[in-house]
Amino acid sequence: MAADDQFYREFILDHYKNPRNFGRIDGPDITHEEYNPLCGDLVGMDFRIADGVIEDVRFHGRGCAISQASASLMTERLKGMSLEEARRISKDDVLDELGIDISPARLKCALLTLKVLKVGAYGLAGEEEEEDE
Amino acid sequence: VVPFDIEGIHPHDLATILDRHDVSLRAGHNCAMPLMHRLDVAALARASFFLSTTRDEIDRLVAGLHDAKRIFA
To answer: DSSP secondary-structure letter at A101?
Structure first.
């Protein structure tokens, strides 16, 4: 089951053990954190935005391999992406990238990061609209 | 009832792997979130034993724990 494990695939374990873009950004343009009280998983993301483009993104948190690998993968995908594009990332995009057959019980682990992104990205839009008024 | 964790393996991952060995255990806050915060742990796995538990079941638990350690080594 080890190396060819269909669920704990090598790249998922690698992202879990060596998370990319892990840490905080000083004075981020957007910061948002989501916590799942049922399982104790926590994922937060800090964004630096310039001209509607995600210049830098870092995540922090703790949780299972799936939740943390999903966050790490997401930060790699987001760098250099426009906020507009980022808002369009769907549940299926996230699951496709993980590429594993995930059980309903573990779905929330995989999608916690997406929730952070969605609330974070739309939260900023709200503020901009307020400033326009 | 034995709550435990293994360094470097989140209890949910442990439970997923033990499931493959036909061992069910509870993982997460186990309805004891204040205690988890007090202990400063994200989650714990929890194995329960009863009079009806067989030696074979315990062997499967041990095999599953070794399997998990191998996957996350």
So the answer is: -
* pLDDT averaged per 10 residues, chain B (length 73): 93 94 92 89 93 96 96 90
C-beta neighbour count of A5 within 10 angstroms: 17
Chain A CA closest to residue B21: A1
Q: Is ipTM > 0.85 here?
A: no
> In this complex, do A40 and B13 lie within 8 Å of one another by their Cβ atoms?
no
Q: Look at B67 and A1 and tell me if their CB atoms are within 8 Å.
A: yes
Confidence (pTM):
0.84
A32, β-bridge pairs:
A45
Structure tokens at A2: 């080890």
Across A68-72, average pLDDT: 96
Q: Where are the beta strands (DSSP E) in chain A?
A: 30-36, 41-50, 53-62
B1, B31, B51, B73: which is the annotated catalytic residue? B31
